[in-house]
Write a structure and sequence with these properties.
The protein has 589 residues and is of the alpha+beta class. Helices cover 58% and strands 10% of the residues. The chain has three domains: 3-210, no CATH class; 235-350, no CATH class; 360-588, no CATH class. Strand 2 (127-132) and strand 3 (138-142) form a beta hairpin.
């Protein structure tokens, strides 16, 4: 049974039928190529090789000229003469009279189209999905010698339509953008209509020869490489890399993928990315390796940013360097992976970190806040004095903020600081941290520090962060002052010893709730007064700035329900009253 007849009668068995058909096509095309006018071939080769982009000592000249001749013959076979007839058409007519496999193959070849397309993914064995870069059409491609390195690449080839809505390559396959100076967009700019494909073929072949690429021309690609078995795989990281590789555009991480990488950032996953880079590159998967390299860089930079704002380890890259060096000595990490880490760490450390754009006014505001902080935290303060200080800070921040334009505000680089409580167990004072952050227009979150203790991190614009640092300390001093006063009071002294600890805790819960309520009211009143007097609200601007900067930290937050605790009602009420009695006190004015 001939290849053509077998294909018609057994379309399901494409794995066997199509290779036979392509074999007949190859033989037919070879005969047609040999029959071309040698003078026309020589003339075209001279035009292509007259101005090469590489010197003769960079290429094997004999092989280079051989490829030029092969491409010239292929192009001329599909180039119309003055009468509009192509050599491949004449070949098809002559073969039709004889009939048989040659006739069918010649008829199919005459309908072949030169296309620029991207190989998207593998549908099943030998069958791939591809997208035409000119029309956007998705089509299915048969190829039994396709390298997995071709997935995601822009390529150019002449395709022949066969049954089952498949295409097969019947000419040389040339990667675009890797060996050529031009990109796919340059070749698509020739326009549409009759002859557009042939014009693109002429440009692609010319550029290929002038660049001296010598990638090896064939009716298909090199045999597929064996898959790389990663020694330190990470499912989530691998999913992001594969999604980036399979993108229709240039293989790269999307904004959502970058956010995902930042959330995944950890020393363990950085090791996975470093090792996977080394292993995929050794396997010949350069684009996949580049994505793992990029992933390692993003995660390392994210941990570096967090360390600078008081979240996580203070110097994460230095800590990882020591741990990784130990793994290299124990032969648990390759020197190549360590070399990549050092390269990326050097680039991150060497990049100039944005410094806060300050002015004389801002410097004065920050200095005044620092002066208030030193004064009140050193001498101790009551809840009344703490409120006055908070109001003073709010006035300073509001006055300064309203004097700034949005552009000037956006020039300021966000800062942060972490407060390590030294405690592993939450206490009533921790309830105040979110409200302190909100009062000062900062983002605040809680985390477990490297030693296992509770840490509060405040993040925002420079003056706001300085204010949050001050107010956080101030609340701590107020807790100490008011708790000491409560212990000297009649209620505490009248409480039996076994119940005194519960009474103090109840008082502090009430004190925290009172401070939270009062600060929240002050914040709301301040915003309302500012909007009424100026018609301007700073919060949307600050929120936008903070959202952008928080995204770079890649932190995912989860809300936690406050634990309901039994309290001594009288002690709680006394504490809440103390928090609610915040009033202006001239002592700190």
């Amino acid at each position: 049974m001939t290849a053509a007849r077998r294909l018609e009668s057994d379309e399901r068995d494409v794995g066997n039928a199509l290779p036979l058909l392509r074999s007949v096509l190859s033989k037919t095309l070879l005969e047609a190529l040999i029959s071309l006018n040698p003078a026309s071939v020589v003339d075209l080769v001279r035009k292509w090789t007259a101005r090469p982009h590489v010197s003769n000592d960079e290429v094997d000249v004999e092989a280079w000229l051989g490829e030029a001749e092969a491409l010239a013959r292929e192009l001329l076979l599909f180039t119309p003469s003055f009468s509009g007839v192509r050599p491949i058409d004449r070949r098809a007519r002559a073969a039709a009279a004889a009939g048989g496999d040659s006739a069918r193959a010649s008829a199919l070849a005459a309908k072949a189209e030169f296309r620029l397309f991207r190989i998207l993914d593998q549908e099943r064995e030998f069958i791939y999905r591809a997208r035409d870069l000119a029309t956007g059409e998705i089509f299915r491609l048969f190829e039994d010698y396709l390298s997995t390195n071709a997935l995601g690449l822009d390529v150019a080839a002449r395709l022949c339509a066969v049954p089952e809505d498949l295409r097969v390559m019947i000419g040389p396959l040339i990667p675009i953008g890797r060996a050529l100076l031009s990109t796919a967009e340059n070749y698509l700019a020739v326009g549409k209509g009759v002859g557009a494909g042939q014009r693109r073929a002429a440009l692609v072949y010319r550029d290929y020869i002038r660049n001296g690429a010598l990638l090896g021309l064939s009716f298909g690609l090199a045999p597929r490489r064996a898959p790389v078995l990663l020694s330190r795989p990470d499912d989530e990281l691998q999913a992001l890399v594969e999604a980036a590789r399979d993108r229709d555009q240039q293989p790269e991480f999307t904004a959502d993928a970058l956010a995902g990488l930042r959330e995944l950032s950890s020393a363990t996953r950085i090791v996975s990315a470093l090792v996977s880079f080394v292993e995929t590159r050794a396997g010949g998967y350069d684009e996949v390796a580049a994505l793992y390299r990029s992933a390692a860089h993003v995660m390392m930079e994210t941990l570096h940013r967090r360390g600078r704002v008081g979240s996580g380890e203070a110097r994460p890259l230095e800590i990882m360097r020591g741990a990784f060096a130990t793994q290299v000595e124990a032969k648990k990490l390759s020197p190549e992976a360590m070399a990549l880490f050092e390269e990326l760490a050097l680039a991150i450390a060497g990049r100039a970190e944005p410094k806060a754009k300050t002015s004389d006014d801002l410097d004065r505001v920050i200095e005044r806040i620092r002066g208030l902080r030193a004064k009140t935290t050193q001498q101790g303060c009551t809840e009344h004095e703490a409120l006055l200080a908070a109001e003073k800070v709010a006035q300073l921040l509001e006055r300064y903020g309203l004097s700034l334009s949005e552009i000037e505000m956006r020039k300021q680089a966000c800062e942060g600081f972490g407060v390590d409580t030294g405690r592993r167990k939450r206490e009533p004072i921790d309830r105040c941290a979110p409200t302190v952050g909100d009062f000062c227009d900062c983002r605040v979150w809680g985390e477990t520090g490297p030693t296992g203790s509770i840490r509060h991190v405040y993040f925002g614009l420079p003056a706001d962060v300085e204010a949050a640092r001050y107010l956080h300390d101030l609340v701590g001093v107020a807790f100490e002052t008011e708790t000491a006063a409560f212990r000297r009071g009649t209620f505490y002294t009248a409480t039996p010893s076994p119940q005194r600890r519960g009474a103090v805790t109840s008082f502090q819960i009430g004190l925290a709730d009172g401070i939270i309520a009062k600060l929240a009211k002050l914040k709301a009143d301040r915003r309302a007064a500012t909007a009424k007097s100026t018609g301007r609200d700073l919060m949307p601007i600050k929120t936008s700035i903070l959202d952008e900067e928080m995204e770079k930290l890649g932190l995912a937050f989860t809300s936690r329900r406050a634990t309901r605790r039994k309290v001594v009602t009288a002690a709680y009420t006394e504490g809440k009253s103390a928090g609610a009695r915040f009033e202006v006190n001239a002592k700190i004015a």
